[in-house]
Amino acid sequence: MAEFSQPTACQFGDGEPKIYNGSDSLKATAFHEAGHAVMCRLVHRHFATIVMGNRAAYVGHEETDMVAYFHRVKSKDESFLKTKPLGFHGELLRPVAVRKIVVFLAGMQAELLLDGSPLECELFRDDFDHRNARQLCEEAFGHSHLRYFQALTRDHLSRCWVEVERTANELLARYDRYGLGIIRLSNPHDASYFSRDDLGARWVDETWD
């Protein structure tokens, strides 16, 4: 099967996903976190830190706050993001679920784009990202098929690939220099890594029937 050129060409499907474990290399880790960060920027999700190290790699708010950007939300978001169960009710909240799902999936899709691997079927990795993406999908849409959302994520990341590479390479350079790669919103020199101005795509919420 050819790689999906447009997300709309990919249906949900009901087959079993293929297990993907990926690489544990530093380069794959850097692109994984860069994928999360760029997708956060694209869908307007706030974060303040990108970290890549031997023991931890994440996009979040604090070094000790592992992948917690979606737990710590501003008061205006509290109606959307609740404690489990997340409680999506009605179609109006589906775009919120989709934005969160594609952020979860962006790490692995960035790894696959780095390797040049085609998206031929739904892939699953038994990790924090995919378990939460499945939960969100189940609560918002009544099923746990991620194939369409993976294609949607990849389509947007591929159009922002220059920025994914820039972010990943900066993480790797800082890791080589300091033993820990950190990009901070609080650092004026890092401000461009948190801006949406230079991304090669624009996010538009879909209308769900």
Description:
With 209 residues, the protein is mostly helical. It has a single domain, classed as Methane Monooxygenase Hydroxylase, Chain G, domain 1 (Up-down Bundle), CATH 1.20.58. It is built from five helices and five strands, in the order E-H-E-E-H-E-H-H-H-E. A hairpin with a 4-residue loop joins strand 2 and strand 3. Helix 2 packs antiparallel against helix 3. The N terminus is likely disordered.
Relative helix content: 40-55%
Q: What is the name of the CATH architecture?
A: Up-down Bundle
Instruction: Tell me the series of helices and strands, N- to C-terminal.
Output: EHEEHEHHHE
- Roughly how many Å is the radius of gyration? 16 Å
Low-confidence stretches: 1-9, 63-88
Question: Mind summarizing the main beta sheet?
Answer: 3 strands, antiparallel
CATH C-level category? Mainly Alpha
How would the blueprint of this fold be written?
Layout: E1 18-19, H1 26-42, E2 49-52, E3 57-60, H2 94-115, E4 123-124, H3 128-141, H4 147-159, H5 161-178, E5 181-184
Parallel strand pairs: 1-4
Antiparallel strand pairs: 2-3, 2-5
Helix pairs in contact: 1-2, 1-5, 2-3, 2-4
